[in-house]
Amino acid sequence: MLGLLTGLSLTGCSSWNLPNVLYLSLSTNSDQTIDATLLQDYREKLSILNGGYRQIHPSTYFQFSLYPEERIIQAMQRRTGAGLGPDVLFVNGETAKRLVAQRLADPFPINAALAQQLNPEDLQRMRITNGALAGLPILIQTQVACFNRKHLSQAPTTLQALLSASAKGHRIGLSIELTSLFWSAGSMGAVDAVQQLESGQTVKPDAKNSLTNWLSWLQNANHQQRVTFYANQSAALNEFRAGHLDWIPCSSVSLPSLRKTLGESLGVASLPSGPGGMASPINRLRVFALGRSSSQAGRERALAFSRFAVNPLVQHNLTVGAQTVLPANRFVKVPTQSSGTLKALSASKSSGQRSAAVSDLLHQDDPRIISAQSIISSLVFGEVSPNKAANDLIHLFQKER
Amino acid sequence: MRELLLECQGWLAYLERPSVLIQLLLAIIPVAVSRRARQRRLIKHWPAEAYPFLGIILLTLAVLGLASVGHSFGLTLLLGLFWLGWFSLHLLHRLLLIWLPEEPTHQLESRLLRPAFLVAASIILVSEVDSIQDLAVAPLGELFGISINAGKLFEALVVIYLVLVGCGPPAAGLAWIAQRALGLRDGSRKAMELILRYTVVGIGLVIVAVQLGLNTNALIAVAGGLSVGLGFGIKEVFSNFVSGLWLLFEGSVRPGEVLLLDGDPCEVRRLGLRATLLWRDRDNAELLVPNQTFFTEATTTFTASDRMRRSQVSVGAAYHHNPSDVIALLENTALSVSRVLPHPAPKALLVNYGDSAINYALRFWIANPLDNSSISSEVSQAIWHAFKQQDIEIPFPQQVEYSMVWPPEKHQSNNGRT
Fold this sequence. Notes:
The structure holds 2 protein chains of 2 kinds.
Chain A: H1 2-11, E1 20-28, H2 36-56, E2 60-68, H3 72-81, E3 88-92, H4 93-101, E4 105-106, H5 112-115, H6 120-125, E5 136-141, E6 143-148, H7 159-167, E7 172-175, H8 178-181, H9 183-187, H10 191-198, H11 205-223, E8 227-230, H12 233-241, E9 247-251, H13 255-262, E10 266-269, E11 284-291, H14 296-309, H15 312-322, E12 326-327, H16 340-351, H17 356-361, H18 367-380, H19 386-400
Parallel strand pairs in A: 1-2, 1-3, 7-8
Antiparallel strand pairs in A: 3-11, 4-11, 5-11, 5-12, 6-9, 6-10
Chain B: H1 2-10, H2 18-40, H3 51-68, H4 74-99, H5 102-129, H6 132-136, E1 139-143, E2 146-149, H7 150-166, H8 168-182, H9 186-212, H10 216-232, H11 235-250, E3 258-261, E4 264-271, E5 275-280, E6 285-290, H12 291-296, E7 300-301, E8 309-317, H13 323-336, E9 340-341, E10 347-353, E11 358-366, H14 372-389
Antiparallel strand pairs in B: 1-2, 3-4, 3-7, 4-5, 5-6, 8-11, 9-11, 10-11
Helix pairs in contact in B: 2-3, 2-4, 3-4, 4-5, 7-9, 8-9, 13-14
């Protein structure tokens, strides 16, 4: 009511033309804290989108609301129930699927012209059981390695090199959050095992061995004097930002805040490979989902804005401007030659294809994730053996099916 | 600040949605109908308090209707719950009156419960249309180089308000404990309570300033700026405030003290930031006297070292009565009045030889200075009855009127002689 009254007073009571507002809700990652810096960061990034859109539709205004990823579903249940939900939600792909499944978002009505601009794999990831599209892919956030150039001249390219660096006195930070740690499963060749676990298949002996190997590496890493495991990714980020760590895995969305703190000292590289192959970072497909509370005009604005967001020029600007995300439009060429960061992001995107299925199956507030993290925590701190931890994980996922 | 206002302005566009308009209407109509029905007493035999239930029934029907057709109903439900909550506060008022007196109940309701309800309702309503978390971090501007955001400002205002409103009962409790432990008088307890309140408010303001991130240098700069401002602008206000604090520490004007103001004994009810509230027994008037009046002017108090007052009644007795007998009778009479203190003993004095009577003064002590008028009246009545019983005459001047004639030589006295 207060807002409505303020709005009335600001617009002047003589004019009853309501402003054309596009309500946009965004989810933040678990390693991001909503504060003034993050708000400003999001505003700056989105200004590339909405600034361009307003050149074509000057009468449209944008209103953003940020929610932590784990709370956005709950917030949308409340807002949609009151008819006050946003027109567009900018969320992770799997969240969009859950929103549609819970009837908090409408499937995206994609046409052939729009679909052919996007990667078929990305579109496939966003398909729900009836074949409808849960959200329109816009960007890809990847996981990369962040290192402090002042202390570490080059990022380790293998797991062995990573442990050697720690042996030489470099401080390495890891998080026990499964989504932050999963990249090492690829390096140790355990992706297939985890995928079998998640999909409820019987885990084959070979797969169990690779799972145990991965868990052994994690336990061994914690035995290194200068490798520290943190309870969550934000704790590791804070330590890295404060200069207490030399190398951490980090999400590409954390790069702007790290750049502000570390400046030129921040190095970005691909995550280390290992005996099992390339790393398997969990990359996030960020999509536009359509809110269910929109008026007819609001829905039209939402669709027009979505189409605008995948426009190649806009996608190029988003990629090159922020250097924290990759475009969903497959016709946009990423200038990897001119930017080391974009090169690392692209490499991470390629190696993350293997973990796409895993990330699609798991969402952040999945109870299995919490239990799995508890098992990994016990393993890392030496309370259980890798073999026991592997059995516990198998039991957990088979029980929950 | 501009961004926050634009954000608020943006909420207006929700009115573009038909589902929002329908919900608003279905929330407003039942409330309006129940109010109208109550004003016109549309349902006979229904007491006025029962009409909100009509609104609740209508709101419930509206929500059920919306739900049955698969329409959004959260907003109607929420507004209905707000209205129900507001109505519940009325009911709570009656419940509170069972345990608490009228004044504390009113204060609790108007200063804490209703503002808390309105703030909570506003936050819930805003969270329906926006993310409270990002609104809270919206920057409002800078204060002494510190960035202030909406959340910080809101927290600071809530803390200051709670400290101002809520420090009363804990301060009173602590003062009560101190009174029990140290054997303080009521006046001292009240003074201690007020000092504790000012201390808590002061500390609360400093904590809020520190919480906002203001450094001590900035606080000193504020204090410096304020002192100049105080010197020129609000000198009187500040003077009264400091006078009030000084009087509290000095203990000369504390709640419960009895002062003589313009010849009337008045009880100090409250020592405020600017003025002292006095109560005058004579006409039940409450007087607001600026604190600096007591600071700069001489004041008569009956309660500085004890609460006793020496009172006096004057009376005349005929010349033919032995003064010793009259004095003894007066003293005994005073002792017979229950509210006259036996110690120090009443004392009667022969004051002077008047035109028609020997004038006596009866001095006696009373426990409560404010009872002076009524006890003096009782003593005077007792003297009249005692004198009557002992045949002691209370003479009064008698005058004889006669008419003069002109010229004076022709004037004759009353007995006919010139």
